[in-house]
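Hi R.,

As promised, here are both runs. First protein below:
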Amino acid sequence: MVEVRRSDITLLDVIASQEIKTSIIEVINECKNKDILNNYGLESLNKILLSGPPGVGKTWTAMAIAGELEMDLVFVRWDSLISSYLGSTGSNIRKVFETVSAKPAVLLLDEFDAAGKDRGGDGQEVGEMSRVVINILQNIDMFSPESFFVAATNHGHLLDTAIPRRFVVVNMELPGEDERRRLIEYYSRGLPVSIDLDEWLKETGGLSGAEIRTRIHQEAKRVILKKNSDFMSVATL
């Protein structure tokens, strides 16, 4: 249910638009300087909602935030918290938040829409979901100021309307040409592949960062195995 990771990457390893990085940096700076802000009676921000399609770097960005803050990353998938027994779901949610209250950490709740769905509709299922959302909202409001909260979702439009306003919302989109250029250079670094950058930029339009990485790594493996004399191949039929 809970996985603790130590991150050694920073925002220098995050390839995103300047607008996205600026939004994240502003929140991190507030978190790092919360004591200064508190002296003026100001509350520092420590909650970010990363919304965007799969593969755009939401988990990677959360790891970079943990690296910047020099904290452990507590990784949780929301679907692992959901139980057919409502009481168990509430207990699971509470335990996760207690984990980051005991020791400062960056809490990443992935697939956040699985538990933060809109409460509209009718019937028993909606009533149970409403209680789950209320539980989440209560824990968000009581979240430790010493920790940092990252929620990630592929479906921001499904979230209950009460949730986003408790976060700084960062919409992460598919990479544009400049970001794709930097992603290609980043993921091909140190690999024995010959990259025609202009051609790759044409071929990777509309792809996520994760898909670009996969394509480059597949090409690198093909080149490496073709050159390796010890390469073991399945006989051609």
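And here is the second one, sequence first, then its structure tokens:
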Amino acid sequence: MYQYGDGGKADMLAMLHQIQPRIKDHMLKDIVTQTADKVSSLAPEVCSKLISSAKNRKLYERDHSIIERLAKAKAKSKQLVNTEQKKDTSRRKEQSL
């Protein structure tokens, strides 16, 4: 919905109707048809709020996902550095004996 809603209700409906014939999967085609039917029954102001809400949610999820992946990568990197430091310490002890 947020992908096709930049131009408002009319543009979104036009895009949904444009992609409908190209969809091969029957379930996805039904979803697009139902979405178009529901959007067409909404007032333009309500539709704009719905599009904005969907877009904000997707942006939040994307940003949250990026932050989460960066935190995991940072933790893994730190773990690898600690492991290497322990190996170096063990090698030095062995060499000094």
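A quick note on the second one: The first helix runs from residue 9 to 19. Let me know what you think.

Best,
J.
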